[in-house]
Design a protein that fits this description.
- The chain has 196 residues and is an alpha+beta fold.
- Helix content is 41%, strand content 15%.
- Strands 1-2-4-3 form a four-stranded antiparallel beta sheet.
- Helix 1 crosses helix 7 and helix 2 crosses helix 7.
Length: 196
């Protein structure tokens, strides 16, 4: 059975999409960011938690503060990308549950009254949303360069608070010259899927 999604869209989102390492100077607009969010906000999370928080790094001062926390190999591309986003998990997401999960507002206290339970749920569901965010960036015709090579404690202290756990930093923009490394291999279906 073939996919319903147009093959060109499949290529844009998956087959031809790559992690970008260089970018042009073309800016990423607020309208593009709004369009990305308006799409990805519909991706599912458990209890509709929606714990992902996005910090956009736009000012030169903030960019400089971020670059110093990036791994050496990630510093040049983070310094030059048109837009950089810090994705984090909100460990206090449960405060929004009465509005986000109105048919069972007690979920806030029934399942998430303890911080360790919230942290685990926030990490998992924000990671799901981070994947949606990457696909949303691609749907906007932009390239994403997600990275986990940075000082997590340093980024948290510099940009977040104790209630937000950094997940990744993503460079965003139009791909520049020599933006792509060669594509790495993928696993075959029989290496991934087991039928029982």
């Amino acid at each position: 059975m073939s996919l319903v999604l147009d093959p060109a869209a499949q290529d844009l989102l998956f087959r031809e999409a790559r992690t970008a390492n260089t970018f042009t100077d073309e800016p990423v607009t607020e309208e593009q960011v709004q369009a990305i969010y308006d799409l990805i906000k519909f991706g599912p999370t458990a209890f509709n938690q929606s714990p992902l928080r996005i910090t956009l790094v736009r000012s030169p001062e903030a960019r400089e503060r971020l670059v110093k926390h990036m791994a050496e190999g990630n510093q040049p591309k983070t310094a030059k990308a048109p837009l950089v986003a810090i994705l984090s998990a909100d460990n206090e997401f449960h405060e929004e549950l009465p509005a986000l999960f109105p048919h069972f507002p007690q979920a806030k206290d029934a399942f998430f009254s303890e911080r360790p339970a919230r942290e685990g749920a926030a990490q998992l569901n924000a990671a799901l949303q981070a994947a949606y965010f990457i696909v949303g960036v691609r749907a906007a015709g932009l390239a994403a360069g997600p990275m986990t090579g940075f000082d997590f404690a340093g980024v948290q202290k510099e940009f977040l608070d104790d209630d937000h756990t950094p997940l990744m930093v993503i460079n965003i923009g139009k791909p520049g010259e020599d933006a792509w490394f060669p594509r790495s291999p993928r696993l075959d279906i029989d290496q991934v899927i087991t039928t029982v």
